[in-house]
Each structure stands twice: as structure tokens, then as C-alpha cells.
Amino acid sequence: MAKQPLIQAIRGMHDILPETSPLWHKVEGIIKSVLDSYGYQEIRLPVVEKTELFKRSIGEVTDIVEKEMYTFDDRNGDSLTLRPEGTAGCLRACLEHGLLHNQVHRLWYMGPMFRHERPQKGRYRQFYQLGIETYGMAGPDIDAEIILLSHRLWKKLGILPDLELQLNTLGTLAERLLYREKLVAYFNQHLDELDEDSLRRLETNPLRILDSKNPAMQSMLKNAPALMDSLGEDSLNHFNTLTGLLDELGVAYVINPRLVRGLDYYGKTVFEWVTDKLGAQGTICAGGRYDGLIEQLGGKNNYAIGFALGMERLLALVEQQEDFRPDAGVDVYVINVGENAARFAMKVSETLRDEVPGLKVVLHCGGGSFKSQFKKADKSGAEFGVIIGEDEAEHKLVSLKPLRSDDEQKNMSLEQLTTTLRQWKQS
What pTM was computed for the model? Predict the structure, then answer.
């Protein structure tokens, strides 16, 4: 049994090792290509924000603010927090830099978020999210667009059959307040059926009770008043137009009247992409409209909708696709034995990188026999070995050996090597 290192990673904060990073790179590349095809622009945001930002945006009585944030005082006595989500920080940046004044924006960001939760598979204390945020567009067309964007991404990744789109509408704040009164009155008639967590939420955020997974409460929740019955004409038209657009474009969905989302700032459209392939952590992507948050953070009344995508859960689902493979980490492994061979091998490696764009070349460093270097070349996954001994170096030649086929090894000049690998890379 290997001896454990003296210092280990913090519980719930995991390393992404070199054997896994190619899968991350491939998925991130597909994500960026889809975002580019819709005209979304990247914004890069600080990991640390003022604690007040999250209290004002997420809500002081939410689980995130009450229990899960990593908050500390800096040397100036300011209360700072590692970001638990990205929407508030993105909106803060747009307000601070004047990006929302008579402008429309489609933005995206990717990076780590932090929540002090009980670690389990698919749920970490440091986790990675892709977030997209759009500003300045009021209609259901932009709601449909971000759902279509995610739908296209699932198709590109080959996981669309494993996902279900769930939709709901939360209406306006005034409509939710009216509904809240009806809901609280109903729950007060069933206090003996509410669990401890729901009793606490009854005083703070009763709509969240609808999202409870407690089996003993499901029958009672099924008979609770429906939010749709408290919505006005404008909210219903917005939602019906959205579902009509999705119907027209062939995007399947399920209306889930108990989908309320966990944050206070959502209104009108909310949605989740869920799967049954990952156990309890079944939500891959979730979002909705949050028009009121802009004014809540000090901006002028405006429109906003976005979503967050959990990268660890997404990759866990992608890994289950047998035909989805990350790109090879190495194309060519340059094997060399001898002092002159080592010098020539470095020149060969640099020439290949100059002359064959995108070619992944690993130059063996540190010496060793041909046998040991071939083992390393094979382990690297390289398609080819370029072999250089002292004789080859003296005559400025190399041997090119295919490592993944039975094709014969060939001697050639550096110029011939460059041409051969360029043609292979382009094929």
C-alpha cells in the first residue's frame, strides 16, 4: 500500500490529472465551437467577490448563503466570498463597466465555483461550471435560443438521448407573491406531513418545498395549488410562445409545475436538463430568466436569462459514450540515443513543430536505451516514433516507425519526414 503524502487536497476539492485532461479539452473545444456558432462572447471574472453581492442576489435565507459559502475577512476587514455561482459576478461586471446601457449582450464564462456541501459523486466543494448570460432581450425568443444552444451541444456530444428537458414558468414577482399566500395556506393545513427541512422553508422560501424529493411528501405535494393558476395573461403568453417555438423546432420537453430552481432571483421561464444515468446527481444544466436581479443590484430595469452547466457531471455522462474518445495526446515521439543524436533530435523536433501546424511532438529527454524509450513512446499513445541514433545524426537522417500499425519502418531525410507527417496530419 502506497504511503499517503503528508499534505493532501482539501476534502471535496479534486485534482484533474493528465490522463483526464484530454477529455476536458475535447469537451471544452466542442462547447466553445457551439458558443461561437451562436455569437456568444467570453467574459473572464474574479473568483473572489464581496460577500454582499451574493447576499443581495442569491438571498440571505437560501441554503447557499446560510450554509455553503466560503466567506472570510481580508486584511482590510472586508467580507469576501469565493464565488458559489457565476451569474451575480457576471452581472456585477456588466454594471460596473457600463455594458448594459442600451446594449444587448450574449456572454459566457467557465471556471471553478465553491460551495461547502457534503462531497459525493458529481457534487464537489470546488466544481467547474460553464455559464451563459444574455442581457437586454425581453421576449421568449431568447429563452428559446439558449435552450436550442444547449440542445445542439448535447447532440454534438452524443448525449441528447440521455437527457430530458423540464420546463416551468414562475411568472412575475407579484404573481409569485399571490401564489405564495395560497401555497403557505395549503401547507399550514398539512404541517404534520412536512419534514424538518420543509418546515424551515415554510417561513423563508415555501416554493422550494415543491422541489422536495422526500417520498413521504409526494402525494401531498401533488395536490398543492398550481402556480400556473396564479399567472396573468402576459406570463402565460410568454410561456406558451416559448413552448410553441420549441414544438416547431422539434425540441422535446416536459412541463414540470414543481420546478422552481433554488435561487431567489428567477422569474418567468425556468428549465433543467436532467438524466437518470448519474444516480442522485441528475441535473446537468439549469437556468432561467432573472430580469429583476439587475435592478436589485443597482442597475436600471432590464432583461436577462442564462444557464449554468456542471462540467464534472457533463463529463461523467460523456464518458459513458463508447464512441466518444478524446484526441490523442501525442502524434510523434522522438527517440534518440547518443550525444550527437540528442542534439539532432532537438532540431528535428523544432522543425516538425515549425513546418507541420498542430502536430503534437514529444522529444525524449533524459537519456536511456532504445528499448526503454520505445516503451515510453508506446505508453504515450503516439502514432509514430522518430528514431535517431548516432549514425542517423551523422548523416542527417531519421527512421520513421508507425507504432499503431504493422507498416514498415522507413529511413528518410528531415525534409522527407516533414512532408510525410504533413500529409498524414492533413489526411
Answer: 0.88
